[in-house]
From TrEMBL:
Residues where N6-(pyridoxal phosphate)lysine is found: K263
Native organism: Bifidobacterium myosotis
Reaction equations catalysed: L-methionine + H2O = methanethiol + 2-oxobutanoate + NH4(+); L-homocysteine + H2O = 2-oxobutanoate + hydrogen sulfide + NH4(+) + H(+)
An example Gene Ontology molecular-function term: homocysteine desulfhydrase activity
Key words of the record: Pyridoxal phosphate, Transferase
Stated name of the protein: homocysteine desulfhydrase
Record bears the keyword Transferase: yes
Length: 489
């Protein structure tokens, strides 16, 4: 079955966590004996070549969403990726164990570093984003934190807007400084002059959301990536809100993409997860990132007298290798096989779900612009917003299922609208099959200081919606009755 092989050479193949790389998929033979599939598990000394192997991603998005990264032949012919609930893997025999531990053979050893179910998800996400590799982690915040720390480690600085998910603002402004990583916040991340004015000798990365939560501001990725690259700085983007179905930031120059898979990717509000995906284009040995050129014990072989740096050993795959081998292995925010399975199942219907949600979100946003007591609607997909010229370039399929709106009156009116809805669940999440409502100032951005909250457009009278799969007319009727009820004496 040809499709089963799609994407199998497009992900991060280091299962051993000791610097090994390979060129193929899981390496379990069809008998289930756990032996190495010789066709797939070739020995690869340099790693970088295997990570960059071209041509594996074929077919339209909807086809890859179902088939990429998983080959039933490697998993006992199971049509659906099985849940490998195994903490560790049999090393086979002494020769194989030695080769695995030395990083000379591709295969699984221990699920903190790699697991076959998680591996299928990683390959699929890499194939869907157009990256050379992915590492799935335990949450979106683990993905954000690992990516920012991996880039900023050792006294680096990040440039970011405050228009971000609350916990990311908290991480950048309050927590990462405790680890020596500082952030230069900008008012407008699309203002290239402002961003350039913040680039200094210690700047390592620019970080932003491709569509910000909750304001739905669109990131103009291409010129920002060009600016970053002129200075040898990496562009790291959080692509959670659009999902890879609506936008592939790597195509426009982003270097690293992070996701909360908790949202649209898994799509049913039933599993926390995250992922880091590497575009494979950035030169981590350009002089700004000493952690990539320093010799590192974990990928070296003291017995053989061989010492390596990540940049030298893994080339264009240095970042994603470092996320797995240093961050996942050390901090251990691992994705569980069960959650990875739920994400894989969710991904199968991502295009269909998101298409319907985008269509409904658009209708609801338009309806709200004419609704009583609504004073502003934030939805960049509307034809008259200042950013509308960016939509055809980045979002030909729509900007997403998140929108927010401001109402007149007091905090009491906001509370009454939320309490008055019958179909919307009052839930601090997005991208669910259910429609969700939340008051960000009190829930998702509660800890963010007032000035940063206002800069992110999160005022007390803001309500955020995440549109699900219910009938759009039913959702509109529900909002209408909740708003009307909230202003009744
Ligand atoms: C844009 C964005 N990034 C990251 C996160 C964090 O994801 P998680 O809750 O999976 O840790 C969220 C959560 O709401 C988010 O909206």
């Amino acid at each position: 079955m040809v499709v089963g092989h799609m994407g199998s050479s497009n992900a991060d193949f280091d299962k051993a966590g000791s610097g090994s790389t390979g060129s193929g998929s899981a390496g379990f033979d069809a008998t289930g004996a756990g032996t190495v599939n010789s066709a797939d598990d070739s020995v690869c000394a340099t790693g970088a070549a295997a990570e960059s192997a071209p041509g594996a991603v074929t077919g339209a998005f909807a086809t890859r969403a179902i088939h990429a990264g998983y080959d039933p032949l490697d998993h006992g012919y199971a049509a659906v990726p099985p849940i490998y609930a195994s903490a560790a893997f049999d090393l086979g025999d002494a020769v194989r164990g030695d080769a695995l531990a030395a990083g000379n053979l591709d295969g699984f050893e221990y699920s903190r570093v790699a697991n076959p179910t998680v591996d299928a998800l990683e390959k699929r996400l890499a194939a869907l984003e157009g990256g050379i590799g992915a590492v799935a982690v335990g949450s979106g915040m683990a993905a954000v934190s690992y990516a920012l720390m991996c880039a900023g480690e050792g006294g680096g600085r990040i440039i970011a807007p405050s228009d971000l998910y609350g916990a990311s603002v908290d991480a950048l402004g309050d927590f990462l400084p405790q680890f020596g990583i500082h952030t230069d916040f900008v008012k407008d991340i699309n203002d290239l002059n402002e961003v350039e004015s913040k680039i200094g000798p210690d700047t390592r990365a620019i970080f932003a959301e491709t569509v910000s939560n909750p304001s739905t501001e669109i990131l103009d990725i291409e010129p920002l990536a060009a600016l970053a690259h002129r200075h040898g700085v990496a562009l790291i983007v959080d692509n959670t809100v659009p999902t890879p179905y609506l936008l592939n930031p790597i195509r426009f120059g982003a270097d690293i993409v992070v996701h909360s898979t908790t949202k649209g990717i898994t799509g049913h509000g039933n599993a926390i997860g995250g992922a880091v995906i590497d575009g494979g284009h950035f030169d981590w040995a350009n002089g700004r990132f000493p952690q990539f050129t320093a010799r590192q014990q974990v990928i070296s072989d003291d017995r053989a007298g061989e010492w390596h740096s990540f940049a030298e050993k893994f080339g264009n795959a240095a970042f994603i290798k470092r996320i797995r081998i240093k961050y996942l292995r050390t901090f251990g925010a691992v994705a569980s096989p069960f959650n990875a399975y739920l994400s894989l199942v969710g991904l199968e219907t991502l295009p269909q779900r998101v298409s319907q949600q985008v269509a409904s979100a658009h209708r609801i946003a338009e309806h709200l612009t004419h609704a009583a007591h609504v004073i502003k609607v934030n939805y960049s997909g509307l034809g008259y917003t200042p950013q509308y010229d960016l939509v055809p370039k980045y979002f030909p399929r729509g900007v997403g299922q998140i929108l927010s709106f401001l109402v007149d009156g007091s905090a009491d009116n906001v509370r009454r609208i939320i309490d008055g809805t019958r179909l919307f669940s009052y839930v601090p999440n997005i991208g669910d099959a259910r429609s969700l409502i939340v008051d960000p100032a009190h829930i998702t951005h509660r800890e963010v200081p007032a000035d940063a909250r206002i800069a992110a457009g999160v005022s007390d009278n803001l309500i955020r919606l995440s549109i699900g799969l219910e009938d759009a007319d039913d959702l509109i009727a529900d909002l209408d009755q909740a708003i009307a009820g909230a202003y009744r004496a």
